[in-house]
Design brief:
By secondary structure, this protein is mainly beta. 3% of the residues lie in helices and 43% in strands. The chain has 2 domains: 139 residues, NigD-like, C-terminal beta sandwich domain (Immunoglobulin-like, Sandwich), CATH 2.60.40.2370; 99 residues. It is built from 2 helices and 15 strands.
Length: 247
């Protein structure tokens, strides 16, 4: 078994972002267990929880989670069989409530080290993270998660309406001027704003923006998939950290 690692939960939304979630931020000690592929994850607790968003920064991923509780410290564990298929690999995140019967909505951030989850370097692979409690997969393709996240304005983008979409500014999203190497368009779906960014909807036009990624964010339980038509291309839910209109 790989070592049991103790960490202090880090808060993402408590001071920097307008989370608009009916939940309590909790700053506590929690344990994170990296299981290896020889262990059977089925013998461990698999209590319900929700993934609010995944913030990947190289080898460290911050996973914002939400669960019912408030009376016990909650534990998380990861497991992967280390199998690579079509240049992609996946892992599971399990949740143990330790018998917590309280029902307050708690929002924590679990910090994962990819070197703790996998037996080899996966930095050049597409990665899927699966919420073990509901088998919901969240894809983090290499080309998308390698893009720059910044508190400063970095990307050139157009703020335009989409045929169908949700966000803090309704269906108004940011279309990047640069596409992926495949030629696919990239859309930033604004679902949070930094306290430095006014929540009032910007005018349509061209901007430079800085963002934090929140892969896997869902506005509703069934997410943007309820739309009959969403923008063509890659969509990344983001927190807007910097917003400057181009003159």
């Amino acid at each position: 078994m790989k070592n049991l690692i103790y960490l202090t939960i880090a808060l993402i939304f408590s001071s920097c972002y307008d989370s608009a979630l009916d939940a309590t931020d909790k700053n506590s000690d929690a344990s994170l267990n990296y299981l290896d592929d020889s262990q059977d994850p089925g013998i461990y607790a698999n209590d319900e929880y929700k993934i609010i968003g995944i913030i990947p920064v190289e080898d460290i991923w911050k996973v914002v989670v939400q669960y019912a509780g408030g009376c016990e410290d909650h534990d998380f564990l990861t497991w992967s069989d280390n199998s690579i298929y079509n240049n992609a690999i996946q892992f599971y995140l399990f949740h143990n409530s330790n018998g917590d019967m309280c029902e307050a909505l708690i929002r924590d951030t679990v910090e994962l080290e990819m070197t703790g989850i996998f037996d080899f370097d996966v930095s050049n692979l597409d990665i899927t993270m699966i919420n073990a409690s509901n088998n919901r997969p969240i894809d983090l393709p290499l080309e998308l998660r390698s893009m720059t996240q910044s508190d400063d304005c970095f990307y050139n983008a157009s703020f335009v309406g989409t045929a169908c979409g949700q966000g803090i500014w309704s269906n108004q999203w940011f279309s990047l001027e640069d596409s992926l190497s495949t030629g696919e368009n990239v859309w930033f779906q604004p679902i949070r704003n930094s306290t430095e960014v006014d929540l009032e909807k910007p005018d349509p036009g061209k901007y430079t923006i800085g963002v934090t990624f929140l892969f896997g964010y869902q506005y509703a339980e069934d997410g943007i998939g309820t739309c009959q038509s969403i923008p063509s291309g890659a969509i990344i839910p983001v927190a807007i950290n910097c917003l400057e209109e181009k003159k």
